[in-house]
Amino acid sequence: MKKDEIIKEFENESEQVKSIVCDRATSNWKFLLAAELLESRLNAITRQYQGLDSETVGKRIDMTNENTFIDWSASLCIEIPKIMENISNKIIRDLQKAIGPVGKPGDALKIKNAVEEINDCCKQLLKIETDIRSIDPPHRFVAVRRKMEGFAFSWLNAVVRFKDNMKEVANDLASTHPRGDYDLILKFDTPLQISQLAKEIKKLKPSTPLATNTMSYSELRQKLFGEPQVTRVKSRPKGRTRSNVRSTVSIVSKILRLFR
Fold first, then answer.
1. Which of 32, 55, 63, 81 is a good FRET partner for 218, with 20 to 30 A between their CA atoms?
2. pTM of the predicted model over 0.70
3. How many domains is the chain built from?
């Protein structure tokens, strides 16, 4: 692809991004580009999240049937790890490949495409967070639903920290004495409220029916909310960009088992 055709692909981006793509004046340009693209998209999602309020979130979903709420919660605990793994794969496989090794050319368009796919995953986390706050749960499950608030968004912060880590790498490469090597880390933290959520579920366990759902989260969501939610992809992370997604996914899986 010619340079003018590549530049056209970035015509709707900020002046700073367009300058990075056009000039490529420094060895750290590809890290700066990825960080700036991620930042603009994450800032938009963060603003939307900060505007969420469980009392004024918009369309309310009556989920006062306990079986329906349990099925939805169990499906949620399956879907979130899929999104986390998808984010990890997009960063470790696609974004890292597009950036390439230090000192080697990067592919600006592939960097942008990888960031767009990561952004789509982050939007799915925001959508789940919105779903959680839209639910009117059964009376016995009000505390459970409240403990789920912030559940999905806490993992979005892992991408924010990764973006900051990438900026640090870019700054180091631009310094007088760069390290010449880098180690980018995608670290998913366990939400602080997850242990409290587990306690709330255990309180209800003696009288809580087993989850009976056989539908995926996207199918169940379409039934309840009237619109689909899609996410797929699995592969083993590799390379100099590291992620703890698998250990964190196992923690979410333990919460899922409490619904069974």
1. 55
2. yes
3. 1
- In whole angstroms, what is the distance from residue 162 CA to residue 96 CA? 12
pLDDT in tens, 114-149: 999 999 999 999 988 888 888 899 998 998 888 888
Q: For residue 242, what are the domain limits? A: 3-258
Q: Is residue 135 classed exposed, middle or buried when 0-12, 13-18 and 19+ CB atoms within 10 A define those classes? A: buried
- How many angstroms separate the CA atoms of 133 and 52, rounded? 8
Looking at the DSSP bridge assignments, the partners of residue 186 are 243
CB 153 within 8 A of CB 188: no
The rounded distance, in Å, linking the Cα atoms of 67 and 73 is 10
- The angle that helices 245-258 and 194-204 make with each other, rounded to 10 degrees, is 20
SS3 call for 136? strand
Residue 248: Cβ within 10 Å count = 22
Q: 221: closest CA among 99, 95, 130, 91?
A: 130
Residues 6 or more apart in contact with residue 37 via CB below 8 angstroms: 13, 17, 111, 112, 115
In the DSSP assignment, the letter for residue 188 is: P
